[in-house]
Amino acid sequence: MDFSMDQFRLDGKIALVTGAVYGIGFTIARSLAAAGATIVFNNLDQESVDKGLANYREAGIEAHGYVCDVTDEKAVNEMVKQIEEEVGVIDILVNNAGIIKRIPMLEMSAEDFRQVVDVDLNAPFIVSKAVLPSMIKKGHGKIINICSMMSELGRETVAGYAAAKGGLKMLTKNICAEFGSANIQCNGIGPGYIATPQTAPLREIQPDGSRHPFDQFIVAKTPAARWGEPEDLAGPTVFLASEASNFVNGHVLYVDGGILAYIGKQPE
């Protein structure tokens, strides 16, 4: 087939982006909508869903929101059935919902660890399992797992998160291995350090006019010499959701400004 920019279009496709009320998930959903997809999202409670719907309306997007805990398999199955009845079969799944608990390992309870793994690893398994049968029946499907640099690296205080995101990388590869012959492409996106409201305190100018020490550390460690923006994830997401990536499978695309490729400068 000759190349055409139309391969990046998502017209007529239905995309479920879990937890996409704000931040990275919302930006990802907006990018898919800009390419023509119909957006479906979920969150834990009606108040959050209503806030998300308002955010989408403000952005000129008619989205569909559902209340669902993605760690609850029964609730997820019911949500997917409802989406298929009310909107249509899901063509694109973005497993975006996630949490992090920054606790030193020796102080982290087993319950805290389980909670992180439940949301960041078990939930993508549950939601993927729920959407796959209809994707297989339809003859195509795209699953995009939001991984992390912690899929490759460790760091103090994030044992649960790193374990879950490392597992998510391997779940991505296993879905590829098991369902690639059914024309299902499962890939991941591994964001670097992204400038979001959640990371804003780490980027604030200090009273003496200097940058926050963590901000200095990240900028020095990143060859691009800056934090990523949520919009930096838009193009990669559309690519992995589109026909342009039909022969890309089981891959994690790191959108990190080069940080994983760089050992850092030698101290002077």
From TrEMBL:
PROSITE patterns: ADH_SHORT. It comes from the Bacteria. Keywords: Oxidoreductase. One of its GO terms (molecular function) is gluconate 5-dehydrogenase activity. InterPro entries: NAD(P)-bd_dom_sf (IPR036291), Sc_DH/Rdtase_CS (IPR020904), SDR_fam (IPR002347). Coiled coil: none annotated. It is an enzyme of class 1 (oxidoreductase). GO terms for biological process: bile acid metabolic process. Its EC number is 1.1.1.69. SUPFAM superfamilies: NAD(P)-binding Rossmann-fold domains. Pfam families: adh_short_C2. PANTHER family: 3-OXOACYL-[ACYL-CARRIER-PROTEIN] REDUCTASE FABG, SHORT-CHAIN DEHYDROGENASES/REDUCTASES FAMILY MEMBER. Belongs to the short-chain dehydrogenases/reductases (SDR) family. NCBIfam families: PRK07097.1. This is Gluconate 5-dehydrogenase.
